[in-house]
Design brief:
Number of helices: 12
CATH superfamily of one domain: NADP-dependent oxidoreductase domain
CATH class of one domain: Alpha Beta
Mean pLDDT: 92
Distance between the termini: 41 Å
Structural class: alpha/beta
Number of strands: 10
CATH architecture of one domain: Alpha-Beta Barrel
Order of helices and strands: EEEHEHEHEHEHEHEHHHHEHH
Largest sheet: 8 strands, parallel, barrel
Shape: globular
Length: 336
């Protein structure tokens, strides 16, 4: 496993991070989740990513149980705040001081820990002053409940403002968590250059485009039984935007000979491609079977050549989303 610094901080994270969005307490039974986490640990993964909203708080509890007995100091445990949880009352969402305080208390309880290594603001809150949000987060850092701060899917201009406030408050805002894959490259034009300037790393989600880049979804063929696209609880609606475009599926199949030439599976090629971006500290990978995370971890130490990167570009062509507007999709109003 390769380890990379998170931004300009001293914290190192594993290049492959284990995430439990759509899996724990939803798509995967608890015992299977434990096996997947154990496989991640055996593969050298130390960074674990979850959120209070995943399975309406249950995913955090499942992850804590799966990590039971693991030395706390040996892992980086990350969770998030923003989306509605619990009974979804008027203050059960957003980035207000009240919701942040109550959310971290709930997350620490469910995760069975005194602190989280990275606390992500899951989206930008247009309904709360940024000064209020950053002040509340700074209090958590100064209290030792949070070590580092991150944002997920924030607009670049808001990241700049938050970073300036973080410096004033003397707290480390060092990471961004956007969607990034061979097919979805909206971060490259604006977010990555700004992040390099500010000393912020990317910890990316959906590096396999919800499984499309594994090559298992083939044009003109039925959706494989047991796949994520066949499971309404497993993110079928998220994958449909790719599956509904036969040209995307056809072009993805053109990646197979590139992967073969590199001695990689198509999933490993997609992960190695993401990690070749120097601003990416880690790629978050989910798993419903232990072998998936074991195989994914093997991509951690691979850096693709410029020639291979060019072959990927040629294979995917105009199916790639380069639009900067594809990042920073925070709701303009708080979700009901």
């Amino acid at each position: 496993m390769r380890f990379r610094h998170l931004g300009r901080s001293g914290l190192k994270v594993s290049a492959i991070a284990y995430g439990n969005w759509l899996t724990h307490a939803s798509q995967v039974e608890d015992e299977q989740a434990k096996l997947c986490v154990r496989a991640a640990l055996e593969a050298g993964v130390t960074t674990f990513d979850t959120a209070d909203v995943y399975a309406n708080t249950a995913a955090e509890a499942v992850l804590a149980e799966a990590l039971s007995g693991v030395r706390r100091e040996s892992i980086e445990l990350c969770t998030k705040v923003f989306w509605p949880t619990g009974p979804k009352g008027p203050n059960d969402c957003g980035l207000s001081r009240k919701h942040i305080r109550e959310s971290i208390h709930g997350s620490l309880t469910r995760l069975r820990t005194d602190y989280v290594d990275v606390y992500w603001c899951h989206r930008y809150d247009h309904a709360t002053p940024l000064e209020e949000t950053m002040s509340a987060l700074a209090d958590l850092v100064h209290a030792g409940q949070v070590l580092y701060l991150g944002v997920s899917e924030w607009p670049v201009d808001k990241i700049r403002l938050a970073h300036a406030l973080a410096q004033e408050l003397r707290v480390p805002l060092v990471a961004s968590q956007p969607q990034y894959s061979m097919l979805h490259r909206s971060i490259e034009a604006e977010l990555v250059p700004a992040s390099i300037e500010l000393g912020i790393s990317q910890v990316v989600f959906s590096p396999l485009a919800q499984g499309v880049l594994t090559g298992k979804y083939k044009p003109g063929q039925p959706i494989p039984a047991g796949s994520r696209a066949a499971d309404p609880k497993g993110g079928a609606a998220m994958i449909d935007r790719w599956l509904s475009r036969s040209e995307v599926l056809r072009r993805v199949q053109d990646l197979a000979p590139i992967a073969a030439d590199e001695g990689l599976t198509m999933a490993q090629l997609a992960l190695a491609w993401v990690l070749t971006n120097r601003n990416v500290a880690a790629a978050i990978v989910g798993a419903s079977r232990p072998e998936q995370i074991s195989q994914a971890a093997q991509a951690a130490d691979r850096t693709l050549s410029a020639e291979t990167m060019a072959r990927v570009d040629a294979a995917l062509g105009d199916c790639v989303n380069h639009d900067p507007a594809g990042t920073g999709n925070s709701p303009l109003e708080r979700p009901a």
